[in-house]
Amino acid sequence: MNDGFEVNATLRGFAEKMAHYPSIVSQLDPDKKGVIDLEVGSYFKAYDEEGTEDGEEE
């Protein structure tokens, strides 16, 4: 998106799910960019959180 967020969604129901995008983005920290997943439900994962699972840190 133009605001720096990435959206992951399927084409089926895309328009209906994107209607909620402004509300979702308004609840997020504007300094943290990441992926907003709208496939099943909706959740946000910041880019800086990737690769921080147990066992992946050196």
Helix content: 10-25%
**SS-based structural class?**
alpha+beta
Into which percentage range does the β-strand content fall?
15-25%
Widest beta sheet: strand line-up: 1-2-3
Give the count of helical stretches.
Answer: 2
Strand tally: 3
**Termini separation:** 33 Å
Notable characteristics:
58 residues; alpha+beta; 3 strands; three-stranded mixed sheet; single chain
Summarize the structure.
This protein is 19% helix and 19% strand. The protein has helices spanning 14-18, 21-26; strands spanning 6-8, 34-37, 43-46.
Structure commentary:
The chain is of the alpha+beta class and 58 residues long. A three-stranded mixed sheet has the order 1-2-3, with no helix packed on it. The protein is globular, with a radius of gyration of 13 Å. The model has no long low-confidence stretch (mean pLDDT 85).
Secondary structure: elements and pairs:
Layout: E1 6-8, H1 14-18, H2 21-26, E2 34-37, E3 43-46
Parallel strand pairs: 1-2
Antiparallel strand pairs: 2-3
